[in-house]
Specification:
Amidase signature (AS) enzymes, 11-stranded mixed beta sheet, globular, 11 strands, binds glutamine, 485 residues, 16 helices, alpha/beta
Length: 485
């Protein structure tokens, strides 16, 4: 049966089992995925860098492992891709920008150390909006990524390369980063599972900083069970990141029935009819499974986008000051030091990054700090409190992940505000520090729609468990570039 399907058509659990049972060698698994990348990526453009030799060498090393050594490592035999703002020793890291030039990392990000210990085979780095700023991957200075469901559309962003790579079955697992929705939104647009952990659950060491109080690395996968597996591998405390929480009790919930909060503010205008339909059908399904749907209010939601687009650029303007032509990558020639700085940053950064640096610097300047940055921080506290109150009443909150389906490439090029408004359902989880999971819930006009599950801080595992009960009730997800069996 399953032996008929190509190895690239398996999820991570299945590949790991095949490898442990000796039914497939790691070399066969990697080779199958590399071939898939060669055939599919010319139309998708998910990868910025593929490490064929490195992945094959690792596979051959793993093929010498005993059955016990394989079983000990939960990702043995499983290919993984990294969003290219996560560093891996010896591999290029671009963050989708020209400014990093030929930079190669001298060290592994903590998540990469953990992946390697778990036996993952890293096949390459995926495209992203420059410095993870964007919602379409169109702001990458280096490559264009297309949505495997419809190549005239964007894959979402900023982790669009990772989402497209998983959706086109080039890798079963990928890591993304999520500052305001960059894992969940592309997962939604590409019909895959994407999860942003509780702030601090996963180390940010080796993640190129965008907005440090919001950034989290998380899994992007074909199934919820794979997302849980990858999450379990990457989470945990880290001496290199003081914001990474020590492993502690995680919230669990009973088998249910649960009280599921449906926030009024997330179902207002601006949501496409097809998204509304799929979301309501999923909610109805939850009700028929015996759960109680409770209408709740998160009253400060209307201010979330404004607060996010002050706080994130403010932190970015500070984080990006390190790209000065001296420390990393490219340098433009200038007649003196200041000219060299200016020219490097002018030539090295794209328009969206410059826009954010300007916005952020302005919001932090004397005279404006109180009016903008401080006010945004106060709003952030109110948004966090909205969730605290809501979670006294309900076990989970369920919303659409995005108000729309994948839009056409170029459509929002000259309308940054429209691009920003699309983040309305995702930025709140980052502002509040809570975990969020997007699962494919169905199709609207042939394009995937994501359903977002939110839980209180440290409710990460309960999120996977709860959403998995719905996953089995939904139409099984199909793959846009899949094989007919
Ligand atoms: N789309 C949002 C932004 O442009 C979120 C990006 C992210 O999560 N990295 O900032």
């Amino acid at each position: 049966m399953t032996s008929k399907k190509p190895l690239w058509d398996h999820d991570a659990h299945s590949l790991h089992d095949l490898f442990c049972e000796g039914a497939a060698s790691a070399e066969e698994i990697v080779t199958s995925h590399l071939e898939r990348i060669r055939s599919a990526d010319s139309s998708v453009g998910a990868f910025l860098y593929v490490d064929e030799a490195g992945a094959l060498e690792e596979a051959r090393r793993q093929d010498r492992w005993s059955a016990v050594e394989r079983r000990e490592r939960p990702l043995a035999g499983v290919p993984v891709a990294l969003k290219d703002n996560i560093v891996a020793q010896g591999m290029p890291t671009t963050a989708g920008s020209k400014i990093l030039g030929e930079f190669r990392s001298p060290y592994d990000a903590t998540v990469v150390v953990k992946l390697k210990q778990a036996g993952a085979m890293i096949v390459g780095k995926t495209n992203l909006d420059e410095f993870a700023m964007g919602s379409s991957t169109e702001h990458s200075a280096l490559a264009e990524t297309r949505n495997p469901w419809d190549v005239s559309r964007v894959p979402g962003g900023s982790s669009g390369g990772s989402a497209a790579a998983v959706a086109a079955q080039m890798v079963p697992l990928a890591l993304g980063s999520d500052t305001g929705g960059s894992i969940r939104q592309p997962a939604s647009y590409c019909g895959i599972v994407g999860m942003k952990p509780t702030y601090g659950r996963v180390s940010r060491y080796g993640l190129i900083a965008f907005a440090s109080s919001l950034d989290q690395i998380g899994p992007m996968t074909r199934s919820i069970r794979d997302a849980r597996l990858l999450y379990e591998v990457i989470k945990g405390a880290d001496a290199h990141d003081s914001t990474a929480l020590a492993l502690g009790e995680e919230r669990t919930v009973s088998q249910g029935p649960w009280r599921i909060g449906v926030p009024r503010e997330y179902f207002g205008e601006g949501m496409e009819a097809g998204v509304r339909q799929v979301t309501e059908a999923a909610l109805e399904r939850l009700r028929s499974m015996g759960h109680e749907l409770v209408e709740i209010s998160l009253p400060h939601t209307p201010y979330a986008i404004a607060a996010y687009y002050l706080i994130a650029p403010a932190e970015a303007s500070s984080n990006l000051s390190r790209y000065d032509g001296v420390r990393y990558g490219m340098r433009a020639e200038g007649r003196d030091l200041v000219t060299m700085y200016e020219k490097t940053r002018d030539e090295g950064f794209g328009a969206e990054v410059k826009r954010r640096i300007l916005l952020g610097t302005h919001a932090l300047s004397a005279g404006y700090y109180d009016a903008y940055y401080l006010t945004a921080q106060k709003v952030r506290t109110l948004i966090r409190q909205d969730f605290d109150y809501a979670f006294r009443e309900v076990d989970f909150i369920v919303t659409p992940t995005t108000p729309d389906v994948a839009f056409r490439r170029g459509e929002r090029d000259d309308d940054p505000i429209k691009m920003y408004l699309g983040d309305v359902y995702t930025v709140t989880a980052n502002l509040a520090g809570i975990p969020g999971l997007s699962i494919p819930a169905g199709l609207a006009d042939g394009l995937p729609v994501g359903l977002q599950w939110l839980a209180p801080r440290l409710g990460d595992l309960s999120l996977f468990d709860a959403a998995a009960t719905l996953e089995t009730q939904l139409e099984p997800m199909v793959w846009p570039m899949g094989v007919d069996e």
